Amino acid sequence: MNMTIDATMGGAILTIDQAAAYLSIPKATLYTWRTRRTGFGPPAVKLGGCLRYRRSDLDAWVADHVESFDDLPGGREDGAAGGVSLSRASRPR
Predict the structure, then answer these.
(1) How many domains does the chain have?
(2) Pick from 30, 72, 73, 89: most CB atoms within 10 A?
(3) What is the pTM of this model?
(4) Tens digits of residue pLDDT in 31-77
């Protein structure tokens, strides 16, 4: 029986392996976020001593971490900061 990851993730509760695959990150990264960066990663649920993730929590966590270009100097999406180039200075020729 050859099942894809999507077929095994039909439920709303995911194992750590499934959650890591869903986020396209190593399982060790989820463990690191839980132990070394408390509060950074998506919230987990302990069920019978096993770590589980709700798909809705993963989706919400991803949505909260979408990169914003408002953080650039000057708040401009094109990368210009008040007419100052953000690229590396070129060498004289």
Answers:
(1) 1
(2) 30
(3) 0.61
(4) 999 888 877 899 999 999 999 999 999 999 999 988 887 766 665 55
Token readout for 65 is 């971490």
Domain annotation covers residue 20: yes
Spatial neighbors of 82 by CB under 8 A, at least 6 apart, are 73, 74
Residue 19 lies in domain: 14-66
| DSSP category for residue 16 | H
In contact, 20 and 30? CB cutoff 8 Å:
yes
Distance CA 18, CA 66 (A): 21
Collapse the DSSP code of 15 into the 3-class scheme (helix H, G, I; strand E, B; otherwise coil) and give the result.
strand
Q: What is the pLDDT of residue 2?
A: 40
Residue 52: which of 37, 62, 42 has the closest Cα?
Answer: 42
What single string gives the DSSP state of each residue in 21-57?
Answer: HHHTS-HHHHHHHHHTSTTTS---EEETTEEEEEHHH
